[in-house]
Write a structure and sequence with these properties.
The protein is an all-alpha fold. The protein has six helices and no strands.
Length: 148
């Protein structure tokens, strides 16, 4: 048996040599006696088998644990909660509304004079692409469109 054949057999039969077929077991024991690397491979496979066996051990379940599961099995999920208008909610909503109004007023107050409500030309220029140059500077007027 070669070390490669030993690895294949370890993958197939596991690290406990007593579970192997008798002929393969004798060859594996002879190889392990000759080579330390083969003995180490068998020991590693046995350790892996023990770790996997411990991981697959069933969880211990007692009556109290089953009782807790059965108690909560009939409960409905708590995702059906509606938002109620509590005094705290109304206060936060009012504060948010005041903050938005103050922010809007501050932004409107800091806009340049060309953005007044009576003169919609600069705003229309931004929306539809009209660009009118100052006639005092003598520059050409470019009109790319109009809504009216």
């Amino acid at each position: 048996m070669t070390e490669k054949e030993l690895e294949v057999a370890l993958d197939r039969y596991g690290g406990r040599l007593e579970r192997w077929p008798a002929a393969l077991r004798a060859e594996a024991e002879a190889l392990a006696a000759k080579r330390a690397s083969a003995a180490q491979a068998i020991a590693d496979a046995a350790q892996l088998d023990a770790t996997l066996a411990a991981a697959m051990e069933p969880m211990r379940v007692d009556a109290a644990f089953l009782g807790r599961i059965m108690t909560h099995a009939g409960e409905t999920p708590h995702h059906e909660v509606a938002v109620r208008a509590t005094p705290r909610f109304v206060a936060w909503a009012g504060a948010a509304m005041v903050a938005f109004l103050v922010t809007g007023y501050a932004v409107g107050a800091t806009l340049p004079d060309g953005y007044a409500q009576d003169d919609d030309a600069p705003l229309a220029g931004l929306l539809i692409g009209s660009d009118t140059a100052d006639s005092a500077s003598g520059a050409a007027t470019v009109d790319t469109g109009s809504l009216m």
